[in-house]
Amino acid sequence: MDGLGDTIRVSLTEDPEYELEPCRQLASLGNQAAQEQWGVDAFDEKHRDTHSFAKRVGRLPEQQENDDVDYRGLLHRDGSVISAVTLQDLEAPEQMYRKLGAKMVVGMPFKDQATSDTLYMPQIPPSSDKTGRRALKRLQEVGVHVMAPANVLVEDPLPHAVAVQPLREVATASQNGGHSLPPGAGRFAVTIDGTETEEEVASLKKSDAVMALLEIAPGVSRVHASRRIFELLQRHQIDISVIHFRSFPEGTSGDDIIMQTGSEVGALLVDGLGDGIAVACPSQDLNFLRNMSFGVLQGSRMRNTKTELWGFALHVHWPIMQNYSIQLSLTSKHRQRLVWMTVPAGVVPT
User: Fold this and answer.
1) Can you list the positions of beta strands (E) in the chain?
2) How far is residue 56's CA from residue 242's CA, in Å, rounded to a whole number?
3) Stronger pLDDT, 55 or 35, i.e. the higher one
4) pLDDT band for position 155 (cuts 50, 70, 90)
5) Residue 154, Cα to own-chain centre: how many angstroms?
6) Using CA atoms in the order 270, 272, 278, 280, what is the torsion angle rounded to 10 degrees?
7) pLDDT digits (tens, 9 = 90+) for 311-324
8) What is the rounded distance in angstroms from the CA atom of residue 25 to the CA atom of residue 8?
9) CA pair distance 214, 58, nearest whole angstrom
10) 311 phi and psi, to 5 degrees?
């Protein structure tokens, strides 16, 4: 995305011939960026150190004395996953709970290590939809909160929701007497599209927003616009948590989502820029998007939710009065390796 380098090396656990297609897709992204001249206006970048790694740490939500629910679960300290949920997903609550990674006990959801931290809903079920509202309430009760656009919550409030508003609107409202929450909302977040002025970004210094969703405007380079926003945040010593929000049009393939999210969002996370990820695509399975998001966090050395273990079979050659050999058959998903070790006499394996 920076136009640097002329060779791509991909290493997969699968057979070598499967490495060619990812290389082609990554090269295609780079060529597209060069041909379409992705970028932003020049800006001074003084805080991103290209010689040493230091992660920017965003501020986590805090509990307030008059809160009826616990908002501390909105974000995770090691990196957050926010899942975009539709009204259609709510039609089958138990299936949705499982796709969100919740542990099920007698039909009730409970938060697990790989459960989505928060939901983002462009539309919420109307208050007349008892089933949909009950499904959301059960998630809220176990610490999985719901975010929705502020204008949607004004029309039909959802108790304890997190209202989402563009930063420009919040900054303007603050200048004109103050910013207020929609009825029922307990917190608010802002969206940033990467084209905001420095003054608008600096207004977050005095804001109570619990997070910023970095949803870069179409036609703007995500990598470079995001770096500019992080530069401004650090310049003004603003520690708000920033979630990379990447939305894809309906019909986008899973491979394309993985490639583009990894090359754009992953490039920022491995630089220590960002506190989480949200990926939305109407035609993709909710479970796939959640697993991919956790995979991006783990690949960025942020939040580990799965362990890649080697299984082994142990074969011992006796007698043990002499040195003996142990054959370990180490098996992963795609590989099997045989390892021989010599063990001193009298040592019995456990």
Assistant:
1) 80-84, 103-105, 108-110, 118-120, 145-149, 162-166, 187-192, 212-214, 242-247, 276-280, 311-316, 324-331, 336-343
2) 10
3) 55
4) very high
5) 27
6) -40
7) 544 444 444 444 44
8) 11
9) 13
10) -80, 155
The torsion angles phi and psi of 114, rounded to 5 degrees, stand at -115, 30
Q: By the 8 A CB rule, do 117 and 75 touch?
A: yes
How far, in Å, CA of 82 to CA of 73, rounded? Answer: 12
pLDDT surpassing 60 at residue 329? no
Separation of alpha carbons 52 and 20, rounded Å: 32
Question: Has residue 350 got a pLDDT over 50?
Answer: no
State how far Cα 38 lies from the chain centre: 23
| Among 300, 135, 275, 89, residue whose Cα is nearest residue 292 | 300
d(CA 345, CA 290): 51
* Model confidence pLDDT, tens digit, residues 77-129: 999 999 999 999 999 999 999 999 999 999 899 999 999 999 999 999 999 99
Task: Give the pairing of strands 187-192 and 212-214.
Answer: parallel
Spatial separation of the C-alpha atoms in residues 123 and 228, rounded to whole Å: 31
Across 57-179, the runs of DSSP E, i.e. the strands, are 80-84, 103-105, 108-110, 118-120, 145-149, 162-166
Euclidean distance between CA atoms 143 and 80, whole angstroms: 13
Q: In which region does residue 250 sit, left (phi positive, over 0), alpha (psi from -120 to 50) or beta (all else)?
A: beta
| C-alpha–C-alpha distance, residues 279 and 83, integer Å | 7
**Helices 286-299/254-269 angle, 10° precision:** 30
The CA distance from 205 to 22, in Å, is 41
CA distances from 44 to 112, 129, 204 (A): 42, 51, 20
- What's residue 309's pLDDT? 53
Dump the DSSP string for 227-258.
HHHHHHHHHTT--B-EEEEEE--TT--HHHHH
- Tell the residue number behind the tokens 């989480």, with chain if given: 276
Prediction pTM value? 0.84
Instruction: Give the count of alpha carbons within 13 A of 146, CB side only.
Output: 31
